[in-house]
Amino acid sequence: MNYLTQHLTTIIGQQAEMIAQLQEQAVKATDQIVALKEKLKEGEVHGESGTGSGPSGE
After folding, report:
1. The pLDDT of residue 47 is above 70
2. Which residues of 10-20 are buried (b: 16+ CB within 10 A; e: fewer)?
3. Where does the record place a coiled coil (predicted)?
4. How far apart are CA 9 and CA 58, in angstroms?
5. How big is the chain by its Cα radius of gyration, in Å?
6. CA–CA separation, 44 vs 29, rounded Å?
7. DSSP conformation class of 58
8. Quick check: 45 and 39 in contact, CB under 8 A?
9. Global pTM?
10. What is the DSSP string of 3-46?
11. Helix (H) or strand (E) holding 2
C-alpha cells in the first residue's frame, strides 16, 4: 500500500502542475482578449476578411 500511496501522490502532484500551467495559459489568453477588445474600441484593429494579403478563395 505504501508504494501505491507514493505513486498516487506523484501522479496528483504532476496533475497539479499541469493544472497550474493551464491556469497560467488561461490568464494570458484572457489578457490577450482584453487587449484586443481595447484595440477594437480604439479602432486599431481592422477587419481582415475579404481584403488584404494572403491566399483568397483557395
Report:
1. no
2. eeeeeeeeeee
3. 12-39
4. 51
5. 22
6. 19
7. -
8. yes
9. 0.59
10. HHHHHHHHHHHHHHHHHHHHHHHHHHHHHHHHHHHHHHHHT---
11. helix 2-42
pLDDT at position 58 = 40
Q: Are 4 and 10 in contact (CB under 8 A)?
A: no
* Residue pLDDT, tens place only, 7-45: 999 999 999 999 999 999 999 999 999 999 999 988 866
> Rounded to 10 degrees, what is the CA torsion of 21, 23, 28, 33?
150
Q: Please give the Cα distance from 30 to 12 (Å, whole number).
A: 27
Q: Let me know: does 51 contact 42? Beta carbons within 8 Å.
A: no
Query: Would you state the pLDDT for residue 5?
Result: 95
